[in-house]
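name: query_chain
kind: protein
chains: 1
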Amino acid sequence: MTTTSERLSEKLTREVSKRVSQSVFDGSRLRVVLLVDVYDGAQQQFLEAYEKLCKQVASVPGHVSDQLCQSIENPSQWLITSEWESAPPFLTWVNSEEHVRMVQPLHSCVRDTRSLRFHIVRETSGAAQTQSAERRLQAHPRIGDGVIRHALTFTVKPGSEKKVAKILADYASPEARVDDTTRLCRTSLFMHGNRVVRAIEVRGDLLAALRHVAVQPEVRAVEEAINPYLEQDRDLDDQESARMFFTRAALPAVHHVGTEDQSEGRRQALCYPARSGHGMRLAELIAQADSAATEDAASPVLRSTVFQRDDVVVRLVDMRGDQEAEVLPREPRMAAEVRELLAAEVARMDLITDRRSPGA
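structure:
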């Protein structure tokens, strides 16, 4: 099977691996590790739910294999590992409505989960492995900056945009320190029409930071205030309702690239509405264009993060001076393909608030 990311040239793959702190587009295999804490007495229920899920996952494009392991020290602790041909097919599946439905039976027997995703950089094989069994590994280790980037997106009821913007602009910032190893660094919030995008930057543990933010009184008050205006109903006092809302709102970062210039720049966000089923390829093209831009000393692009889920692609870019980010790639063929993949015009989003934590 040929994956989307295999269309990257070897030269670009080499450059991306050396320069970005995060990218899913290098074409190497992916290892997914899911740590699961099962309620006492629910182990058999969990095993039966997993076996049904396993049969469904086996038919997902890009899936190679998986294993289910139970702790020899604590029977409530389980480990699920899976291998994928590359990151894009996994992300397409895990962020889909199909996946949301498939994992729902697990919620009643699982206390907590933690998902970790890794590109395979090197591996050691037994003598019996043949040349034909060799599979693509990440060519080079990437160089990160210690920051994890994530975003949420949701829509509000038409006509409520100004009220929602005021609520989201006026709240008090939550405590930046999560624990000894985790800290909130920056929150940037944008709107266009009735779509809201909230991008966050964290040093340390993203999951711990998200949980920390969720219980902060300042944030809780804002979430309660915008509840009546959301197009997707939610009840923050109902754990399952809140979980489903934030699962669907998650907008993962699929690519980040930056220059050596550490100046702050002017932050902008552009929303690229993709044609159905083409969001990942559209995100890949934008990522390629911004990688090339950061290699050009004359380019005004300082940093770029591309977020994607289903057919929503958002590009968060820091620009030198007052320059506006270009909507389309400069390379003509790439620009033409981007146009073909768009379902509507690219939207420049309005900045509602951009907050840095002291010392970030």
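note: The chain has ten helices and 14 strands.
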